[in-house]
Structure formats: structure tokens, C-alpha cells
Amino acid sequence: MPKIKIDGKEYFAAEGETILQTAQRNGIYIPRYCYHPALSVAGNCRMCLVEIEKMPKLQIACSTLAAEGMSVLTQSEKVKKARKDVLEFLLINHPVDCPICDQAGECYLQDYYMDYGLHKSRVEIKDKIRREKRIQIGDYLILDRERCILCTRCVRFCEEVTKTEELFVAQRGDHSYIDIKPNEKLNNPYSMNIADICPVGAFTSADFRFRKRVWFLKTANSVCLGCATGCSIKVQYDDNTVYRILPNPNEETNTWICDAGRMTYKELYAEKRLRHCVINGNFFQPKNIIPVFEYLKNRDFSKSALILSPYLSLEDNLALYYFASKTLKIENIFVPEIKEGKISDGILINTDKAPNSKGLELMKKAFSIKTVSDKEIEKIDFIITCFKQSRFLKEKKEGLYFSLEENDLNGALIAMKSYFETPGTFVNYKGKISLTSPAVSNLNKLSVWETVKELSALFSSYLPFEGFEDLRKIAEKEILGKRI
Ligand code: SF4
Ligand code: SF4
Ligand code: FES
């Protein structure tokens, strides 16, 4: 392990580590544009220049390996002057349209200009090279060529991560610009990561831009429920509204997220979101469970079944289990057939679109629950499950269905909270346990577990939980066998 000095202090560098990486690992930040930890090193922006003892010229920290005895200065006058010059060079033709740029607040140009630049432009606006702005380069991406600093992060992302190679650098010198192959669109399934990694306002998200200044956003760390991979995400919100989802990189699951996962928050505002409870065509306030009780109270449940769902959290599945077995005395309790999930594209997207198949498999074992079969369902005349699960039933039966979306199922449809609005435990295809974190509240609806708890009280049946925390503890003890 080479020992090096950075700004006078000694550090051990890992084998094969660059100066930038050793510094970063030890809490010393070296400015960068082209360097990205998940992409190859391009070494083209020169923003990471540092001074190395006995070397006559400044060196780029992102590609220089840390070597035994090296003494590196990251804050010397020479380094600061170089950063200022690099910034001036990068900004020569930049339009400096920060007031109308949606990257403002998270732009490396703005940040480094305040740290090292603070220069007056020596080029008049009229002499700057003008380029195309607002190019809709993909369904989710807008490209502004004037703001690009040609760090090539976007090009490398398409070459190295998605391997779709849509982008390239056209022309030479200060005529260079980012272009896309003729007749192509930047619509690969991970395209919006490019808006995240573009360090300036050249690539912005068509979905998010101009909806909110980023400094107003707050973040809830959560998990994506778009498939069984269970990517860690940051849900960004303000004023009880979710504005965007970003990846929350971690070694266990993901560096990136897919576009489909990023768009899952749209379920909150979908036109088809179920906003009422519907019983046989009649509408009720979603929190009014009296009509649901009336609908259920005289029913004979001997030919009814509960089908638990990998689209629901462990807590909601547990609550349904207790509601069906203890309150309604239903004997037919099933889990659907669970298929092993695997990554389908070598990146993140899973063959299994249900986020909690593994969790349900563990619950099935812990509670000795049977797997449902078409034969058994034939004998059933009333089903309790969630709408997403009901889509896999061959024959639609009357039932009690929890749903986020409007649908034409027969029976009682209960509008439920989304997992952006309520917590829930999910287990991804590899067994990683994650908890969704509610970013927004929904005072008009109940969670699945809240609904069945209230219904049970009307039946004078008291379930073994009071609140979410109790269900979580049961899940921990009975299903997961360890602390969440
Ligand atoms: S568009 Fe952004 S990511 Fe791509 S080269 Fe330009 S600055 Fe870099
Ligand atoms: S791969 Fe799956 S879990 Fe990850 S972001 Fe996409 S939909 Fe969500
Ligand atoms: S970050 Fe090192 S050259 Fe760009």
C-alpha cells in the first residue's frame, strides 16, 4: 500500500488508486468535470490539476496513480491559479444563462466559479460561439449545446453502461459539440442518468426541468418498487409534492436507475388514480369504511380466498393475513406463484416486475401458506387481494380489491395509499431488505393495514397490531428473523 502525503498529511493509498480517489476517500475534495467514479477516466477537462513535488508541471489527479512517497498539494497558489485558468477556458463560449438554466443550484460550473473563478469574461457576449439550445434529443432529455463543456461523461455513459453508443463528439477544437447518430433518439432505458451525470446544464431532464428550483427540494431515501431489483432511490419533494427521483448509489444494488423506475412517482398524480372507494358502482369517500363493512358483514366467507401480493409490503400482507384469518375466518389463504427474479439486461432491469416476491416467499415459508392454483380459484366465489395481483387471475371474481388505479373489477375497490405516502418493507430478489420512506402525506386515504385494522374493529375483532411499528416487529421476528 503506497503511502502518500496530501496537503502535508500522510495517507495510505489502495493499490491502483489515483490521487483523486485517495483524496476523496479521505475527505479531500478535488474539483472535477470529466471524472465520474462509475465511468472510465477521460482526463480531458483539466479541472483536477494538482501539484506533485519534484514534478515540474501540474498533473491531473483523476488519472495519476498514487505512488509511494508522493507529496501532493491540492490547494497551493499554483493549483488555484490553474483552476481559475481552466474555468476561464471552459467558460469562454459559455452563454452564462444561469438565471434561466435548470441546473442552477447543482451546477459544477457555478460552484467552481464561486470557489476558484470569479473572473470577468474577456470575451464579449457577441463574440461567443452560439450553438443550438433546447434540442429534444430523447423523450426524457433536452440538450443545450451552448452549455456543454465537452467532458464526455454522456458519451462514455452510452458507450460503457448502456452500450447503446448513441452519442459522439462531432468536429474539432472549439467547433466541437455533442451529437447523436443520424436518425436516432436518446431513448435507451437508462437515458435520464445522463441528466444526473452531466455536470452542467447541457443535459437536463424533460420531466423535471423548470418545475422546481433544486434548493427547495427535500429528500427521502427510499426504494424503487418498479421491479424486484429494488434500487435505492432519493425521492425529492417539496410542498407535499414529489418532483423527481434520483439514484441513491450503493454497492449492494445500484449506481444508476432505469427511466421506468424514475417515473414510478407518476402513480401519485395519474389521471386514473383511484380517488374514491367504489362498491358495486357506488362511490364513497376513501376513508369511509362503513360501506365496506356493510358490504362484508353478512357475507359467507366459506368460499372466499385471500391472495397475498408481491406488490404489497410485508406489513400490508401481514395485516391482510390477520384480517382474513382472524376477522373473516377465511381458510383459503394463498400466495401467487413466485418466479425467481434475475437481471434481464446485464444492468438493473429485472425479469420480475413485482418488488416483494422474495419477501412473500419468506412469508409463505414462515406461515406455511400454499401457492395458489387455477383449480383452487375455480372453487372460490370471493377474492381479497390487490388490483395488480388480480391481473394474473384467469377469471375475474367479485372481491375486495385494494388499488391505486381505477379499474372495472367487480365488488369493493378500496383506494389505497401509494408507498410514496406510507412506509413498507420490501425484500429484493437478492434478499436485501429495504423500507420505503414516505415523501408525501395523503390525508384522504388509508394504507391497506389501516383499512383492515379499522374494518376488524367494526367486526369487533382485534388484530395483533396497533400500528405500523407493531407489524414491522412481527415481520422482523416471524418472517425476516433479524432486525430491519
Ligand atoms: S453534454 Fe454534459 S455530460 Fe455531455 S459532454 Fe457536455 S457537459 Fe459533459
Ligand atoms: S431497475 Fe427496477 S428497481 Fe431499479 S430503478 Fe428500474 S424499475 Fe426501479
Ligand atoms: S477530472 Fe481530471 S481531467 Fe477532468
Which hetero compounds are present in the coordinates?
iron/sulfur cluster, FE2/S2 (inorganic) cluster
CATH topology of the largest domain: Rossmann fold
Low-confidence stretches: none
What's the architecture of the largest domain in CATH terms? 3-Layer(aba) Sandwich
Tell me, what is the CATH class of the largest domain?
Alpha Beta
Give the fraction of residues assigned to helices. 10-25%
Work out the helix count: 13
Rg (CA only): 27 Å
Structural shape: elongated
Number of strands: 23
What do the pLDDT scores average to? 95
What does this molecule look like?
The protein has helices at 19-25, 77-90, 108-117, 153-161, 193-197, 259-262, 290-297, 314-327, 357-367, 374-378, 387-390, 448-458, 468-480; strands at 3-6, 9-12, 49-52, 59-60, 71-73, 135-138, 141-143, 167-170, 177-180, 203-205, 218-223, 232-238, 241-247, 277-279, 282-284, 304-307, 332-335, 370-371, 382-386, 399-403, 411-415, 424-427, 433-436. It has 484 residues and is α/β, with parallel strands linked by helices. An eight-stranded mixed sheet has the order 15-14-21-20-19-16-17-18. Helix 8 (314-327) runs parallel beside helix 12. The protein has three domains: 3-90, Roll (Ubiquitin-like (UB roll)), CATH 3.10.20; 123-210, Alpha-Beta Plaits (2-Layer Sandwich); 277-480, Rossmann fold, CATH 3.40.50. It is built from 13 helices and 23 strands. The site of FE2/S2 (inorganic) cluster (FES) has 12 residues, from loops. FE2/S2 (inorganic) cluster binds next to loops.
